[in-house]
Amino acid sequence: xxxxxxxxxxxxxxxxxxxxxxxxxxxxxxxxxxxxxxxxxxxxxxxxxxxxxxxxxxxxxxxxxxxxxxxxxxxxxxxxxxxxxxxxxxxxxxxxxxxxxxxxxxxxxxxxxxxxxxxxxxxxxxxxxxxxxxxxxxxxxxxxxxxxxxxxxxxxxxxxxxxxxxxxxxxxxxxxxxxxxxxxxxxxxxxxxxxxxxxxxxxxxxxxxxxxxxxxxxxxxxxxxxxxxxxxxxxxxxxxxxxxxxxxxxxxxxxxxxxxxxxxxxxxxxxxxxxxxx
Length: 278
Ligand code: IPD
Ligand code: CA
Ligand code: CA
Hints:
With 278 residues, the chain is α+β, with helices and mostly antiparallel strands.
């Protein structure tokens, strides 16, 4: 198993960095198209999706892949990679240097490894979290090889809480922290993992937005709490996750759930009723 993890980490890091180098040349220069769900896509998203899939298939032919620009159904392989080739396409097309390549690895439907690379920030996050999978391996969360952990502070008006574009109603009510919005779901969560923000919300991220970052946040001492009644992991083989949102609250400590959940629960309720989730 140790060689497996050295291979997984080395492969993922090298892949994300080499793809990121090429993508960075196109940042701010491509005309996006509108997808059916209203989000943007560029030739660069599709190119990176294809290259990442190709590299994974070559290195781990026995593993499955679910990626934003190609296939959204969970395959039956025990190991499955979950890829967002560019997280933050709107930032990427407008030349804002906040965008990421997000690569997660699931074992039997549960994320256990994640790597997120932000090429223009020169930041690479990675982490391991095995939960009850029975898998063993390295532990911890890292930013550019340095261990990271969430803050143990109490929330206050001078602590940061990240919003997404679909959670701005929070601004119409009294809120306990100062808010920020970065436009990249994975980075929203990773800022909590790194201790910069105390919490964050993503109203309707897809599995490829959260698979890698949720592992890193847990490994750093936090929790990605899903605003729905049932556990979302393990994912179900054969299900199409293309339009399934996972309203999520990033917490620097699991104990802060009772503090933040009442302030953001209405967002989860709205998403669950719009998408008819249980
Ligand atoms: C989007 C971004 C955005 C988040 C959306 C995502 P994309 O990803 O991460 O910040 O709020 O939910 O879909 O479309 O740029 O990969
Ligand atoms: Ca995304
Ligand atoms: Ca994307």
